[in-house]
Amino acid sequence: MKRMFSSITDGRGFDLVLVGVPFTFLLALSGLPLLYNILMSFQEVDMFSLGSVVRPFVGFKNYVDLFTQPETMSILRNTIVFVVGSITGQFIVGFALALFFWINFPGASWLRGLFLVSWVMPGLVVGAIWNWILSGDFGVLNFLLQQTGLMSGNIFWRSDPNFSLWAVILANIWLGTSFNMILLATGLAAIPTDLYEAAEMDGANAWQRFWTITLPMMRSTIGAIIALGLIFTLQQFDLFAAITDGGPNNSSNVAQYWAWDLSFRQYDFGKGATISVIMTVFVMFAATVYVRSTRHEVRG
Amino acid sequence: MTHQIELSAVNKYYGAYHALKDIDLSIRKGSFVALVGPSGCGKSTLLRSLAGLETISSGDLVIAGKRMNGVPPRKRDLAMVFQSYALYPHMTVEQNLTYSLKINGVGKAERRRAAADVAAITGLSNLLHRYPRELSGGQRQRVAMSRAIIRNPQAFLFDEPLSNLDAALRVHMRKEIRALHDRLGATSVYVTHDQVEAMTMADHVVVMRNGIIEQQGKPLDLYDRPSNRFVAGFIGSPAMNFIPARSTPDGRALVLDLAEPQTIPFDSPLPAERALIVGIRPEHLTLAPADTAGFKVDVGTVETTGAVTFITTATTPEIVIALNGRSVLVTGETIRLTFSGHHVHLFDAGTEQRLT
What we know:
The structure holds 2 protein chains of 2 kinds.
Chain A: H1 2-9, H2 14-41, H3 61-68, H4 70-102, H5 108-115, H6 117-120, H7 123-134, H8 140-147, H9 164-189, H10 193-201, H11 206-217, H12 219-235, H13 238-243, H14 255-264, H15 269-295
Chain B: E1 3-14, E2 17-28, E3 32-36, H1 43-51, E4 58-63, E5 66-67, E6 78-81, H2 93-103, H3 108-122, H4 137-149, E7 155-159, H5 167-184, E8 188-192, H6 195-201, E9 204-209, E10 212-217, H7 219-224, H8 229-234, E11 241-247, E12 253-256, E13 262-265, E14 275-280, E15 286-287, E16 295-304, E17 308-313, E18 320-324, E19 334-338, E20 345-348
Parallel strand pairs in B: 3-8, 3-9, 6-7, 7-8
Antiparallel strand pairs in B: 1-2, 1-4, 4-5, 9-10, 11-12, 11-14, 12-13, 14-20, 15-19, 16-17, 16-19, 17-18
């Protein structure tokens, strides 16, 4: 006991304490729930057995049942469309804005700061605002599209199964763009200016400099932001709750929203947990990409 | 004589700050020109203006017979070696070397051959597939040089390329750069704050201060006939001694303003009763034989390098004397110094300009 105490005071055990605190924290609040979730996906769980850990073991029954359900494939497809569409949109708009503010005109930093407002807003508020924008009868988006002559009739974004998923993607792009912009702006700022000067002396025009200097130098930032984007879009829940509720007829439903629906509306906790496990696999893949891309950072 | 680069009445303003003031400079084809001066003197601004990385506010800039004022850097056909080397970190040495060729649409086989040729000259042949992060400082420096050489440009611009190297390597690279310059028959403009680099490498030295050219010419001309006190103090190491003085009414002697005024006869006629600054290089001061005229000083410190002994006097201002060989002088001793008239540089005490 005395030795343990002195190992803390003399600093030699201090490193263990420093590691131990976050480790305990992660284990209690992330590790155990994760394991519990995996356990539940192999059990039959209902309202009455929710309180106990020992429940009927059903093997892969939840997984098999899930994939025989007719809506599963379309929901997984929706999830992929949502993730790819959101990340692509957020990245392209975010990169364009980052490059725009990189020019550093007067007031650039102020304006860039204002863009962060979208990131600060709660998803439910963003959803409510986009409900108005997307509204079929009086929405601003329909008004703009008609005034510019891009279409003639009203699109009922939220209730038309062809558009409902895109309505949420649109809102999510708006929500995530500023985060992309800030990270990409940091990446741009980290590229030494003399590289551009050297490339300019070597005869490269602006377009060539972008492809041969900017993009390769941003590789790790871009890898990181796409991995983080995958994690964030797979977490996106509020917008679905606020805009379409996954409807109509699951046309805008995605895995994360469905997992919540199964667990907490239909009380089929086993299947909800099963979807979460499948998603965890995808997120772990993204996390691996993220860790690898930050480890391979190019240093001068 | 053909001039490769010509600047006339070039001015550069950053807002209200006047960075370059009426610069006139002609650089002969094949010459090695050093721009030298203390930090903030405008030498780097001048080089970057040549490169096109800065735009000049007024005046004319002509490179190889073409007016280049508004021409972007990529169309000036100049190659620059940066202080930081500015190697592309995501490219191998070979890709770094051939970047400009690739941009200009040179085929892959020809690029490889060009890289191999240049690498053979600069000794990088077995490093072509390394990344810059895997190279030492000296090797990076060579890559930066090779990247410029492969272009065969109108002129090479060097922006303090040796300042990140250690002393021994710096001396070595100095010779190597000069040898490369001669071998390629190139025109080079070299910015440095180190006057020794400028003196040893260049054919033509341009000394700058506060945005103006104080003096330009051959290295030894600057050394022998500095046109003002600044150039006199800047060129040469250890620096020239400056002693405030006044000429006698008959103009035949100087009264040196040391702790106590000391009169020393001067063989050529002086303007009468004038406040002067006497400049005399450390190697031109000698110990006065007993029967000749001289002035008395107390020895402060004695430092010897073996070949040369430097004596710093305990006077105000301090005087440094460089004596060949070793010396038996000790601190506190009183010695008499003398100099010959033609080694003395006289500057006006007010304007600090050279007198005749």
